[in-house]
């Protein structure tokens, strides 16, 4: 992810939740830390899959899966997005 902030962010972090049929079944928390005002930054995280045989079938979860990503400065919310996932 690339981002720019006009203002200082003391404790930039994000929380990501994965919902299936409205129930949260995975949650991740990532911390970037201090963001210099006026800077452009790159943030990359790697998440490994559970592996073949431990994955949910795409045709079963298509349209039932939602991913929520929320950005914070400490505990102060900055932005939030929610996407419904369809596999085609």
From TrEMBL:
Q: Where is the GMP phosphodiesterase delta subunit domain?
A: 2-87
Q: Coiled coil where? A: none
The record's section on SUPFAM superfamilies has: E set domains (SSF81296)
User: Cellular component per GO?
Assistant: cytoplasm
Q: Which family does it belong to?
A: Belongs to the PDE6D/unc-119 family.
**The protein's name:** cGMP 3' putative
Organism whose genome encodes this protein: Albugo laibachii Nc14
């Amino acid at each position: 992810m690339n981002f720019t902030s006009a203002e200082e962010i003391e404790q930039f972090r994000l929380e990501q939740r994965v919902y299936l049929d409205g129930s949260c079944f995975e949650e991740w928390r990532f911390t970037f830390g201090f963001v210099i005002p006026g800077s452009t930054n790159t943030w990359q995280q790697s998440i490994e899959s559970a592996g073949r045989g431990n994955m949910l079938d795409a045709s079963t979860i298509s349209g039932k899966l939602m991913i929520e990503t929320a950005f914070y400065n400490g505990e102060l919310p900055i932005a939030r997005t929610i996407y419904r996932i369809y596999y085609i």
